[in-house]
Specification:
The protein has about 130 residues and is an all-alpha fold. The chain contains three helices and no strands. α2 runs antiparallel to α3 (about 95-125).
Length: about 130
């Protein structure tokens, strides 16, 4: 195999990773934001005191949206660091690892917030 082939494959793999990351962030924003809209719509259509208390699940979904935004910001800073390393030195360093791990942590928090908010909403509807 030629070096050109390996470089091309690495470039395409990296592009695919970036695309998957973007889709993952869209997914988080969609599920958390969609849950907020769905619960608010439901509450707007329920009359009187028949509505379950959905305030806490809404807070968890909003927290999931905030964590998603934080994860996206750290992912941006990770990419910026990688870009600057490559531009200035011609190679990658490990200086991007802290922001990468913070992005991963915020992503996990966002997904967990959605899961817990959904569980709380289900519990509220069962009562």
């Amino acid at each position: 195999m030629t070096d050109n082939y390996i470089t091309e494959r690495l470039t395409e793999s990296y592009k695919a990773l970036v695309t998957l990351s973007v889709e993952a962030f869209r997914y988080l924003a969609l599920i958390n934001g969609g849950a907020v809209v769905a619960l608010l719509t439901y509450l707007g259509n329920v009359e009187g005191n028949n509505a379950p208390d959905l305030g806490v699940p809404l807070l968890w979904f909003i927290g999931g949206l905030v964590a998603c935004g934080i994860a996206m910001a750290f992912a941006y800073f990770t990419q910026l660091r990688l870009f600057n390393d490559l531009l200035l030195t011609g190679k990658f360093s490990t200086g991007h690892k802290p922001t990468l791990w913070l992005a991963i942590l915020a992503y996990i928090i966002s997904l967990s917030s959605f899961s817990y908010g959904a569980w709380l909403a289900i519990q509220a509807f069962e009562q």
